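This is your field. Please look over both lines of this record.
***
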Amino acid sequence: MTTSRAVSTIQYGIRMRALLFSGGIDSTALAWSLKPEKLLFMDYGQVAAEGELRAAKSIAKALELDLDVRPIPMGRFGQGLLAGGTTVSETVPEFWPYRNQALITFAAMAYADLPLSSIIIGTVSGDGCRHADGRVEFIETMDRLLDVQGGPRLEAPALRMTSEELVEESNVPMSVLGWTFSCHTGEWACGLCAGCVKHAQIMQALEDEG
């Protein structure tokens, strides 16, 4: 931690962490294991926002964690399924340019007047194979950028884990995972998009292990 960050935390005598929370499996596993002070849900114009928010509210209530809901209208800047468009390509079904960069920045802005020590993002190892903002280099660069402005740390605790490994390590119960939502196409799970397929595969694997 740099001096500016240390001073901010020491001055207020507390450590406040905010988790970017979508109501999906990865961020739910982190919420369960880390119990951050804030779960930050951003409706940035994604077509699945209502389904994600419904899941986020249910999970936050079950975990007794503070859910902060912020509308950030970026719908006009999106591409791919989450923006209500078509699949970008066969190998990259979903792409929203600079989304994580924007969401991390908005999170830092939202809590700029609070003693925020870290922003936590639920990136897992497979994300970097499809998108640059899922890579180690991106996380490290964004962390340095926040530091330049005296901001919080950027943490990605599951960066080198698969979703399955994250769920197993977190010990999040199936009863909580049952609330999660991962569809990219709308308010209700379509069962066919990449998000739904990944969700079904993880849940099936956990049931097989159990």
In short: The helical segments are 3-12, 25-34, 49-63, 99-110, 136-148, 163-170, 174-177, 194-209. The longest helix spans residues 194-209. The beta strands are 16-20, 38-43, 67-71, 116-120, 153-155. Confidence is low (pLDDT under 50) at residues 1-12.
